[in-house]
Amino acid sequence: MNLIQKSIIGGLVLTACMACSPVPSPSNVAAHNDAKSVSNAPLTVADARDFLAKVEADIQKLSQPAAHAAWAYATHINYDTAKVNAYFSEQLSVLLAKYAVEAAKFNDVDVDADIRRQLDLLKLSLEVAPPADPVKAERLAAIGSELSGMYGAGKYCRDEQTCFSLVEMSAQMATSQDPDLLLEFWEGWREVSVPMRSLFVEQVAIANEGAVELGYANTSELWRSKYDMPAEDFPVELDRLWGQVEPFYEALQCHVRAKLSEHYGADIVPLDQPIPAHLLGNMWAQSWGNVYDLVKPEQEMNVPNVTQALADQGYDEVKMVQQAENFFSSLGFEPLPETFWQRSMFQQPEGRDVQCHASAWNLDDVDDLRIKMCIQKTGEEFNVIHHELGHNYYQRAYNQQPMLYRGSANDGFHEAIG
Ligand SMILES: [Zn+2]
To answer: Distance, CA 10 to ligand 1 centroid (Å)?
Structure first.
């Protein structure tokens, strides 16, 4: 799936945790006026080193409470956890924005490659950059918290009595071949986002203001600057890479459309139109493994049915995770810490809202590794568990690095490892 959906959310969490900074009270933020101290005299390499040491110390101080607030919110969505999470998220964003602006003051200082990279990472550390105006910064954090709460608690209601969660609908999307039901769920889930529209528009406007204050044209340019190349080169590189795989995707789309058309009929899958996305076995049409039986090649292929094998061998959610851990142990990685098993969320709990989208966390940036998933006992989810644990092992692999390096080499790299 959700791999993209999951990835995005995982990435944000990761950034938040990695970036998590201390929880200065608003007065603390005002009192830490580093800009002043570094602007009086010409800046030196030693100043850059001192500045990064201070940034690292402040980040470490705030990172744990902020990460715990984010975890509490993701696993217990309610009014209070939303407030606490929004508060920490804002503190963190404001601190990082302040330091990002200060990092830019070293742009012309002749520092070594290591310091330069840490300064650059600091400037690019925020997904959405809050403006210096505290009212706007607070609003930006509140919008982020509200949007993820609406997404996590989102349900589609067929009528007043019959509502479906994302997990329930995803299970149907994976197995049903009733085109009317699939279309109903596809469209129904997209009703959840309609009330988000005005919040999203407002979020973009405020984040663009923050990006401009950091010296970028807008948030898009800030995001496109994260790949060790000029922002304007990024889409060119993307097109170049897409060109390499495009012929394969064209052929695959053509084949899958033809097979689905045979199964559902040309009135539902016309051969001269794009494939209707609701028929691909996934709420986002981004992973097509669930329709394999409908589209597989004519010749016999020996592809194991993992979902069936999990059922036959009595796998529950915990055993699925243990098996995934065994895979990584077989590659030579240390076992997961005991706290992973005590603190992770593997199943959708009864009686409260949670963010079900799979994500991988390292709450103390050392070894408080966890995953958060509402595991379905399917082969697809078995893959996702391996993917999430891949994030955890990568997080642990860089836990001795300077704080600013405790993250993905770029935001695609974590997903590639997973
Ligand atoms: Zn991921």
So the answer is: 6
Does residue 284 form part of some domain?
no
Domains of the chain: total: 2
Give pLDDT, residue 40. 65
Neighbours of ion ligand 1 (CB under 5 A): 7, 10, 415, 418
The rounded Å distance from CA 386 to ligand 1 centre is 10
Rounded to the nearest angstrom, the distance between the alpha carbon of 388 and the centre of ligand 1 is: 6
What domain range is 366 assigned to?
A: 306-405
CB 402 within 8 A of CB 19: no
How remote is the CA of residue 117 from the centroid of ligand 1, in Å?
A: 24
Other C-beta atoms closer than 10 Å to the C-beta of 15 total: 19
Alpha carbon distance 418, 406 (integer Å):
16
Report CA(47)–ligand 1 centroid distance (Å): 37
pLDDT tens digits along 135-172? 998 899 889 889 988 988 899 999 999 999 998 999 99
User: For 185-244, what is each residue's pLDDT tens digit?
Assistant: 999 999 999 999 999 999 999 999 999 988 899 999 999 999 989 999 999 999 999 999
- Spans of the chain below 50 pLDDT: 1-38
- Distance from the alpha carbon of residue 176 to the mean position of ligand 1, in angstroms: 26
The Cα 349–Cα 352 span in angstroms is 7
User: Domain end: 125, 147, 167, which one?
Assistant: 125
Task: Using the mean position of ligand 1's atoms as its centre, give its distance from the Cα of residue 231 in Å.
Answer: 24
Q: How far apart are CA 4 and CA 15, in angstroms?
A: 16
With respect to residue 82, please indicate whether it lies within any of the assigned structural domains: yes
Give the closest residue to 108 by CA, choosing from 56, 41, 44, 46.
Answer: 44
Ligand 1 center–CA 2 separation, angstroms: 9
Beta strands in 322-388 (DSSP E): 359-362, 369-372
Tell me, in angstroms, the distance from the centre of ligand 1 to residue 414's CA. 7
Q: Please, are residues 404 and 56 in contact by the beta-carbon 8 Å criterion?
A: yes
Task: Write down which residue in 68, 100, 125 finishes a domain.
Answer: 125
The residue count for the chain? 418
- The Å distance, Cα 16 to ligand 1 centre, comes to 15
Which residues have C-beta within 8 Å of that of residue 205, sequence separation ≥ 6? none
Report how far residue 126's alpha carbon sits from residue 348's, in angstroms, rounded to the nearest whole number. Answer: 30
Please report, as a single letter, which amino acid is at residue 280. L
Alpha-carbon distances, residue 257 vs 97, 276, 289 (angstroms): 47, 9, 14
